[in-house]
Design goal:
The protein folds into three domains: about 1-75, Uridine Diphospho-n-acetylenolpyruvylglucosamine Reductase, domain 2; about 85-190, 2-Layer Sandwich (Uridine Diphospho-n-acetylenolpyruvylglucosamine Reductase, domain 3), CATH 3.30.465; about 210-285, UDP-N-acetylenolpyruvoylglucosamine reductase, C-terminal domain (Uridine Diphospho-n-acetylenolpyruvylglucosamine Reductase, domain 1), CATH 3.90.78.10. The protein contains six helices and 21 strands. It has helices at about 35-50, 100-105, 125-130, 190-205, 225-230, 260-280; strands at about 10-15, 25-30, 55, 60-65, 70-75, 85, 90-95, 110, 130-135, 135, 140-150, 155, 165, 170, 175-185, 185, 210-215, 240, 245, 250-255, 290. Strands 6-7-15-11-12 form a five-stranded antiparallel β-sheet, covered by helices on one side. It has a four-stranded mixed β-sheet with strand order 1-2-5-3, covered by helices on one side. A four-stranded antiparallel β-sheet has the order 17-20-19-18. The structure holds flavin-adenine dinucleotide (FAD).
């Protein structure tokens, strides 16, 4: 079944090549599918061999263990990479880059999603994470999501009011998101461009974008900001080997070079302890921690 895959199949692929943090040990079987049939072949192979399956989009929100991942890892960035626009609606494949979608929509005078600009993501990863900013999350725009079940059948999901919550999307367990429909609205290109410029400027001023990271490590606790708590706990700039709590934004951990997953985990443990000791707040991580 792996032989039927038209995309690439690699063995012992270092996952540090595929994460924005540049951390992660090898994947036993790493598949870069070319189309939906390739995804099906990979899922059926994993089911037959009783192997675990993990999905990666752009790898921008992941901390992957230093010993890597057993089973099959499917990387969807670059696959299912088409977006179409019909009236005020976009239909996008899971591998479409979120920023490309925002740009393409803007060129057609379609807006709404520009509040998500600057979030490095595939559409699949943005959906799974319900990626967003203070001004909105992708779930606010989704009218339908499409997925592939582990047995290779396709499904459609019309999200209700509770499907998307803060940084998560409650979709069927084990399913692979393959695309979605997004509701947009008419807005002049010049207005969208001005908005995008302002948002990117503010991100650049407040986030360590020149360094490897996975974005915000912690979810904001209700009514507060995780970054504020980490900073007040005196941890800005704290370093363990190559991993550092950013001096620019305390909710980011950056890889200064050679950081391991163990270094990042040690910084996270320290942060959780210190913040709890100072404020009685237990931080919950936003980044997804996977692998061994
Ligand atoms: C510099 C920087 C800034 C960031 N700023 C923000 C921000 O402002 N707001 C925000 O919300 N996030 C932010 N992030 C985090 C990250 O960009 C988002 O979480 C994004 O949605 C991750 O998308 P991805 O495609 O890289 O997904 P990945 O990191 O590859 O995966 C994330 C999760 O989604 C799952 N997944 C991915 N694709 C699929 C699929 N097709 N089917 C099923 N499951 C899937 C994965 O299994 C994993 O659990 C930032 C990250 C960085 C590095």
């Amino acid at each position: 079944m792996l032989g039927e895959i038209r995309g690439e199949v690699r063995f012992k692929e270092p996952l540090s090549f595929h994460t924005s943090l540049r951390i992660g040990g090898p994947a036993d079987i790493f598949v870069m599918p070319q189309d939906i049939d390739d995804i099906r072949h990979a899922l059926l192979f994993a089911e037959r061999e009783q192997l675990p399956v993990a999905i990666i989009g752009g790898g921008n929100n992941l901390l992957i263990g230093d010993r890597g991942m057993r089973g099959v890892v499917l990387k969807l960035e670059g696959c299912l990479g088409r977006a179409e626009f019909h009236g005020e609606e976009a239909v996008a494949g899971a591998g479409v880059s979120l920023s490309a979608l925002i740009r393409e929509a803007a060129a057609l005078n379609l807006g709404g999603v520009e509040c998500l600009v600057g979030i490095p993501a595939t559409i699949g990863g943005a959906l799974a994470m319900n990626a967003g900013t203070h001004d909105g999350s992708i779930g606010d725009f989704v009218s339908a999501a499409y997925f592939l079940h582990a047995d290779g059948t396709l499904g459609e999901f019309k999200p209700g009011a509770t499907a998307f919550t803060y940084r998560s999307f409650h979709f069927p367990e084990g399913a692979v998101l393959v695309g979605c429909r997004l509701r947009l609205h008419r807005r002049p290109l010049a207005e969208i461009q001005k908005d995008i410029k302002q948002r990117l400027k503010s991100k650049k001023a407040t986030q360590p974008l020149a360094l490897a990271s996975a974005g915000c490590v912690w979810k904001n606790p209700p009514g507060d900001f995780a970054g504020r708590l980490v900073e007040k706990a005196g941890l800005k700039g704290k370093r363990i080997n190559g991993a550092e709590i950013s001096a620019k934004h305390a909710n980011f951990i950056v890889n200064r070079g050679g950081a391991t997953a163990a270094d990042v985990r040690a910084l996270m443990d320290l942060t959780r302890e210190r913040v709890h000791a100072h404020f009685g707040v237990t931080l919950e991580h936003e980044i997804r921690i996977i692998g061994e």
